[in-house]
């Protein structure tokens, strides 16, 4: 970047990305709308929850193209267009009368807007902080937990006072204004940006340069590696439990412990608060122990929470399980962005991470469907917990395969360097 061109304050960019992710993460309050919407229209919970699954699928697909645009042209206009679509989707959902209409307004329109913004804002902000690693990932993604924590009780109160349809309109307007208010601050970092005064130790810097020469894959090259598919399937397996609870936390709390809808909304807030703490904690865990140890810790915690949930009948016990599961799920989404950059390089990070993130949409499709299917066929969510735990255990096996492949790769790299 030339001396005449002023470098923007990277903390303004971080703040803008934080607010945008905060607003887009409002999808986590989806379960608060479940009971009033299904009762109002006479829909089944399975049909209603499919809107969430389709939303995350469309979100992930659009994010791939948004990642390509981010890597090549920058991100600012994506925030404006995405903010318009996102707010409009929520607003129009108030007018739906059929399930297909819900899928168009919420899943397609709002999901497309979210896909334009979420990963693009995250990747853009992270490129301004090469000196902070997992901590910045944790801080940025903490907003995705704080958002639902604040918005869940607010949404419940708005629904109670104005009705569920007006609530969709109010939130749609708020989301549109919020994104446009900060989207203009999203500037793209120069290539190989380094903060002023930041230097790696010379030996470590040389090592990093050697690695950068070896690991700098575009999306086609990434898809040709076994590592991509192992990471992708790990994310599918690991995100199943978390997305199951995000989409159905309020309903599960009411069914399993006999809570009211208002207290169920509080459970959603508790889950998202623990999710927030998990994001901050795993940013530190990532930097201290490395990506794969952090991921293994995360998966073990998820399995423990799921198995404990099968026996949770009291409010206190159930809440403890939700806290553990929320903590682990929050950490999962912190680990994968820097892990993707570490595995496939920084240059094409935007598009590469968007493709890896499709694994999350896979988990978001499987999780809610597992919850709805076993609830309808067995009358409880217990079998759903066990199924999600099995999938998470498969994720641990996949991480083991990744570590094995990485050891082989390191040996080859050492031989080349020598």
Automatic annotation (TrEMBL):
Pfam family, one: MFS_1
GO cellular component: a single term: plasma membrane
Main location: membrane
One example GO MF annotation: transmembrane transporter activity
Localization, UniProt: Cell membrane
Source organism, top-level taxon: Bacteria
Alphabetized InterPro entries for the sequence: MFS (IPR011701), MFS_dom (IPR020846), MFS_trans_sf (IPR036259), Proton-linked_MCT (IPR050327)
Keyword terms, alphabetized: Membrane, Transmembrane, Transmembrane helix, Transport
TM ranges: 12-32, 52-70, 77-96, 102-126, 138-159, 165-187, 227-253, 259-277, 289-309, 315-339, 351-371, 383-405
Domain Major facilitator superfamily (MFS) profile: 12-412
Protein's membrane topology: Multi-pass membrane protein
CDD domains according to UniProt: MFS_OFA_like
Keyword Transcription applies: no
Protein name listed in UniProt: Major facilitator superfamily (MFS) profile domain-containing protein
The organism of origin for this protein: Cytobacillus kochii
């Amino acid at each position: 970047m030339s001396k005449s061109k002023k470098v923007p304050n990277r903390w303004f960019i971080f703040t803008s990305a934080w607010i945008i992710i905060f607003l887009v993460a409002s999808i986590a309050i989806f379960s608060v709308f479940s009971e009033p919407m299904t009762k109002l229209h006479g829909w089944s919970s399975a049909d209603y929850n499919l809107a969430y699954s389709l939303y995350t699928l469309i979100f992930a697909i659009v994010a791939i193209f948004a990642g390509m645009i981010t890597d090549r042209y920058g991100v600012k206009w994506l925030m404006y267009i995405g903010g318009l679509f996102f707010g409009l989707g929520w607003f129009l959902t108030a007018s739906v009368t059929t399930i297909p209409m819900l899928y168009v307004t919420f899943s397609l329109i709002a999901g497309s807007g979210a896909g334009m913004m979420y990963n693009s804002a995250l990747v853009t902000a992270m490129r301004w902080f090469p000196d902070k690693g997992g901590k910045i990932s944790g801080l940025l993604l903490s907003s995705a937990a704080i958002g639902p924590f604040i918005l869940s009780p607010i949404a419940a109160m708005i629904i109670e006072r104005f009705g569920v349809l007006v609530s969709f309109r109010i939130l749609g307007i708020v989301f549109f204004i919020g994104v446009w208010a900060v989207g203009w601050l999203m500037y793209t970092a120069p290539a190989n940006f380094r903060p002023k005064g930041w230097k790696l130790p010379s030996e470590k810097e040389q090592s990093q340069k050697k690695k950068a020469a070896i690991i700098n894959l575009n999306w086609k090259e990434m898809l040709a590696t076994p590592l991509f598919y192992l990471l992708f399937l790990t994310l599918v397996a690991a995100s199943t439990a978390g997305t199951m609870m995000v989409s159905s936390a309020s309903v599960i709390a009411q069914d399993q412990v006999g809570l009211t809808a208002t207290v169920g909304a509080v459970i959603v807030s508790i889950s998202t608060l623990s999710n927030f703490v998990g994001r901050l904690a795993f940013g530190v865990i990532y930097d201290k122990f490395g990506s794969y140890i952090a991921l293994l810790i995360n998966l073990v915690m998820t399995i423990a929470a799921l198995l404990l949930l099968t026996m949770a009948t009291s409010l206190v016990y159930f809440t403890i399980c939700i806290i553990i599961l929320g903590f682990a799920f929050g950490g999962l989404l912190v680990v994968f962005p820097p892990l993707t950059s570490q595995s496939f390089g920084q240059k094409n990070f935007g598009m590469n991470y968007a493709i890896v993130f499709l694994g999350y949409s896979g988990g978001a499709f499987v999780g809610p469907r597992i919850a709805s299917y076993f609830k309808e066929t067995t009358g409880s969510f217990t079998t759903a917990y066990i199924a999600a735990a099995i999938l998470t255990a498969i994720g641990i096996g996949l991480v083991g395969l990744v570590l094995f492949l990485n050891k082989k790769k390191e040996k080859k790299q050492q031989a080349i360097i020598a």
